[in-house]
Specification:
The chain has 256 residues and is α/β, with parallel strands linked by helices. The protein is built from 10 helices and 14 strands.
Amino acid sequence: MKKLLTAVTVAVLAVSAGVAQAKDWKQIRIGVDASYAPFESKSADGKLVGFDIDLGNEICKRVHAKCVWVENDFDGMIPGLKAKKFDGVLSSMTVTPEREKEIAFSKPLFETPTALVAKKGSGLTPTAESLKGKSVGVEQGTTQEKYAKDNWAAKGVNVVAYQNQDQVYQDLISGRLDAALQDKVQAEIGFLKQPRGAQFQQAGDEIQSGAAAMGLRKDDADLKALVDKAIDGMMKDGTYKKIEKKYFDFDVAPKS
């Protein structure tokens, strides 16, 4: 009987410990690099704004959690997530096989291509032949950095990585860079349609890239389930479209 009682006691304690450790997700900390308008940036009064910000706040609302946004350089997003500096990443992060080895992702949130930007009349195109001997700026940790290094760096293109997208544009404007490679929509709305981008244009054709999603830790399957359910609800009840129309006059919804 004593052995039985001991076994029952151990089992009860184990269950209690599991309950105590369970996460209720009343607060979700989300990592963001606020240098990528219209997806994520800061307004004149220092408030975080953008498509990702609105999507994240809507997800938190549906999960009944408080959103706490944590600013971070993009190349430190995955290390920061794994180190529990934040619980998710919502910062125009494209789903790639390499990233999926390290973290989990929510259902896709949007899908936009990549584009090269250069001075008007430069004649440049997004090919190694055209960019040989030129300097191309990219943001560290992005799929654009990987693309440029994988396809151009060994063929004589100087690929220069920066901590954030604003630094890329600063050096492009100053003439220290010949071109910049980034998300096409970000380039169009966050740079080319702004006064600082008046002397620049998309150079050549766009480059297809994958869908963006919210990055999550692999062991937080419960949070992923909540986020995915929220995304499904936004898509079905029209809320996603309302948020999308606030920023774009074209469709960026994931194609699959």
